[in-house]
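Exercise: predict the structure of this protein bound to pyridoxal-5'-phosphate.
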Amino acid sequence: MSRPVRAEINLAHVRHNFALANQLAAPGQNVAVVKANGYGHGAVAVAKALGDIAPAFAVACIEEALELRRAGIQTPVLLLEGAFSAEEIEVAQRENFWLMVNNPVQVNMLQQAELASSENVSLIKVWLKVDTGMHRLGFEPGELTGVYRQLKSCSVVAEEIVVVTHFACADDVNNPKTSDQLALFNKAYQSLRDNNADTETIPVSLANSAALLAWPETNADWSRPGFMLYGNSPLLAEHEDAKKLKQAMTMKSEVIAVRTISAGESVGYGAQWSATKTSKIATVAMGYGDGYPCNAKVGTPVLINGQRCPLVGRVSMDMLTVDVTQLNQVAIGDEVILWGEDLTCNEIASYANTIGYEIMTRIPARVPRIYST
Ligand SMILES: *Cc1c(COP(=O)(O)O)cnc(C)c1O
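Solution:
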């Protein structure tokens, strides 16, 4: 018998979520974002599951892109932070990686780059990032036309350059910042258009998951959904389309001990929680070393035999403890669900002062991913 911790991943749900993203993006297309190991779900498995329906994938760095290539995935891969060295530009030509261009150093590297000498090289499809208010990466709106021209004259850069921005507050449907960013973007884009021939194709990419769901006016040639593909809502408030998402991951374990303690006795490190009455405590093989948030509060729900029971005591590296006094029957080997379809990862995050994104991307390699299709 092996330790019972496992992340069960339903790839049919990922496909369902991508199909929903496609409906929302139509007639635009979606780059499926699989950075950070597919938000913890396994980038290769997710990319293979979407292989016939995703026109491109996006990752954070070239190592993640090469992992997809090593697994035999031939689809174009967008590097969201672009190239970090001249060598990466050469690799991008050979591997058909698309490069985000975020800063003048990257423009300079593309200007210096030479066409790789081999049969199977492609010109690099470049995505040019404009900073409209996120203030993280990208050029000033006023710099767009100039940088676009510089890129157009690079011998390694493909004809069509996608112009991109990224929203800071799209998860909040009441926040006017998204409309402000969109207006800034449209102004810069219009000025770029005015400076180029009407016949020139200049595709646009705007929306992340939240914008795709909640801000239809940000629909463009390309959207870039990530989080929603894994089935949790990226939005702060409830939303009709977000309700159609299906959480792909169920984090499971088992009860590995049960005991009864008296009033006044404590549980776990630091003796931080004490029973106020005679209580039955179940120990579960799941800890922060498996990606369960260490600062999950007392009362965080844990599903044991399908019933919500409160976490008590401090989460350990390999275990956590749950008050199961309310359950009639609980025994070693009983099934425990830490998050899944009936208990979303977002809900767990809300008890741990974090976000679902962080919980999913922090699941370490020691947790086996078990796939179903
Ligand atoms: C991560 C990322 C996305 C995907 O965002 P989600 O909120 O996961 O949909 C899109 N665009 C860029 C530039 C990103 O870095």
